[in-house]
Amino acid sequence: MELTLLGTGAPAGLPRPDCPCAACACALGPDARAATSLLVDGALLLDLTPGAAFAAARAGRSLGGVRQVLLSHPHDGPALEVPAGLPQPGRVPDGRELALLTGHRVRAVALDAPGTGYAVTGPDGQRLLYLPPGGAPAGLEAPAEPYAMVLLDVLGRPDALARLRETGAVVPTTDVVAVHLDHDVPPGPEARRRLAAAGARAVPDGSTLEVGAYGDVPDVPRRTLVLGGARSGKSVEAERRLESFPEVLYVATGGSRNGDTEWAARVSAHQERRPGSWRTVETCDLVPLLKDDGPPLLVDCLSLWLTDAMDAVGAWDDAEWADGGERALRDRVRALADAVRETRRTVVAVSNEVGSGIVPATASGRRYRDELGRLNAAFAAECEQVLLVVAGQALVLRG
């Protein structure tokens, strides 16, 4: 089954008309996108958009062989001029299946929002799933038969991808292609970076893809360290990297700090950002978690883990530090790094980058700064990807 993407953008396109935002200003060349529309084997058109015939011609395709036009959006919207020779657009009722003379079968998938999703099975047996903007499948049951290709709003509805993964509808060989791309995320390298972290990719308008060929499916980094200063956006970046995966275990190393209302407000803000399917555990005992099998781990953060470890070995007292405390801390850091090296889980860890600031005025402050630098370096050495977040912008240091 062959799929040509006549457009891959949001309904208003990218850039949006008359939008002054920076993302729209940068959406040039291959990053400029028309509203999403898909041509399947030249016979089935999913979503009729303005200029579809011209888009097909630019892609070296013709709409002359289209036998069925289906709409997925929540409403039909304003009347569109149907190019000569095309059948009138229609919609398949949820749960019903439409069989085409070309051998394609199209089943309408119920969504948790207005609109219709379509599961298409080609004559060769390959299967693809297409979801409209803002929609996620409703009532999925596991185990589901995997799709060879899924096209959805990855950046706008990462939870939809998480649901599909949870039921087995999306597996590591599924080609996840982002469509309905809008100006909420800067185009180009930033959009590609965020998509790759979710195991997805974007392609330029006019691309033709073979359903079932998964050579271009990006590998999700299994171990990632996200560094940054205070309020840099490092925790948001770390959470974003796992929001398209189900059953994430959030490991909070800071504790509750009973009586500290400001700290409680910080914790509450973090909790409100997390998907409801995530679980939280408060612990600094990271090594057993890394050794166990299980869902992805998000550790926030290593700097608080280090504070706990330094408390445990008496690192704040010069005499205790010299009398075995330093050696004990080195052992703890080494054990953590070894566990990261050997873990089979997907891990995203957050840590502070404090080495570029003012030199602390106290010996204990300088000791903490130095040990955090050593910890970050040891942890980063075991990660496939390392990021530094500055002013909300993620800079890739490795991977």
Outline of this structure?
This protein is of the alpha/beta class. The chain contains ten helices and 19 strands.
Shape: elongated
Distance between the ends = 33 Å
**What is the β-strand count?**
19
Order of adjacent strands in the largest pleated sheet? 5-6-7-8-9-10-11
In terms of structural class, how would the helical and strand content be classed? alpha/beta
SS summary, helix count? 10
Rg over CA atoms, rounded to whole Å, is 25 Å
Mean pLDDT: 92
Which blocks of ≥5 consecutive residues have pLDDT under 50?
none
Q: Strand-and-helix sequence, N→C?
A: EHEEHEEEEEEHEHEEEHEHEHEHHEHEE
The portion of residues assigned to helices is 25-40%
Strand content: 15-25%
Largest sheet: 7 strands, mixed
What distinguishing features does this structure have?
399 residues; seven-stranded mixed β-sheet; 10 helices; 29% helix
